[in-house]
Amino acid sequence: MKKYLAELVGTFILVLFGCGTAVVAGDKVGIVGIAFAFGFALIGAAYGIGPISGCHINPAVSLGVWAAGRMSVKDMIGYWVGQFLGGILAAWVLSIIISGVGGGYDIGASGLGQDGWGPGYQGGYSMTSAIVFEFVATLIFVIVILGSTQKSAPSGFAGLAIGITLVVIHIFGIHITGVSVNPARSFGPALLVGGKALAQVWLFLLIPSLAGIVAGLLFRMRALEAE
To answer: How far apart (Å, rounded) are the C-alpha atoms in residues 197 and 169?
Structure first.
C-alpha cells in the first residue's frame, strides 16, 4: 500500500503543478514555463517518492514496466489506482484554488489544463496529428524511463534525464494536444471539466498506453536492454 500511496502523491504533484501552472500562469510564463513546470514537478517527485515506488506516476509507464517484465500485474493495477486517484484529486484541488480568482472562473469554458485536439483547441491540430504525436512522444518518454532505470545505467541520474525529456516533449507538443503522454494526467482534468474534454479523453487513455506497451516490449525482447 505504501507504493500505491506514493504513486498517488507523485501523480498529484505532477498534475497540480503542471496543470496549475498552465491555468494560473500560462499567459505569463508561456509554453516554456509550462514545460518546465511539468518537468521540474516530475524531477521533484522522482527524488521524493522514487525510493518507495520508482515514481512511475503515469499508467502508461507502469504498463511499459510491466511489458518489460519488471513488475507484476497486481502491482501495476495498484499503481494505476493510485495514479488515477492522484490525478483526479489534483484536478479537484486546482478547481478549488482557481475558483477563488477575482471575478470568478468558469471551469467549463476555461478548463483545467485538459488535453485535446481540433478546432478551438491550441493550434487546432487534427486527430491524426494528435494520435501520431502522443504515440511517438510517449514511446520516446517510456524508452528514456526504462533505459535510464536499467541496472547498467548510471545511478542517481534517472530523475533528471526523465524530467528533462518531459520538458522537451512539452515544448514540442503543447500546441498539438496540450501533451498527455500520461492517461492519469489527462483523465483528472477531463473528468472535472466534462463536455468536449471528457469526450476526447479516450485518445489520451488509449494511445499513450499502446506506446507504453511497445516500449516495454522493446526492452523485454532485449532490443534496447543493455547487455
So the answer is: 21
Sorted by sequence, the CB contacts under 8 Å of residue 10 that are 6+ apart come out as: 45, 46, 48, 49, 53, 55, 56, 57, 86
What's the grid cell of residue 58? 503515469
CA distance 227 to 225: 6
* Residues 67-86: tens digit of each pLDDT: 999 999 999 999 999 999 99
What's the pTM?
Answer: 0.95
Q: Exposure pattern of 95-134 as b/e (b: 16+ CB <10 Å)?
A: beebeeeeeebebeeebbbbbbbeeebbeebeeebbbebb
Above pLDDT 90, what percent of the chain? 91
Domain residue spans of the chain: 2-220
> In one letter, which amino acid is 40?
F
Tell the residue number behind the cell numbers 495514479, with chain if given.
83
- For residue 181, give the DSSP letter: S
Return d(Cα 78, Cα 87) in angstroms, integer. Answer: 14
Question: Does domain 2-220 correspond to CATH entry 3.30.450.20?
Answer: no
Q: Report which of 83, 108, 70, 76 is spatially closest to residue 190, judged by C-alpha positions.
A: 108
Q: What is the pLDDT of residues 92-118, one digit of tens each?
A: 999 999 999 998 899 988 999 999 999
List CB contacts of 120: < 8 A, sequence separation 6 or more. none
d(CA 208, CA 202): 10
Rounded Cα distance between 44 and 159, Å, is 8
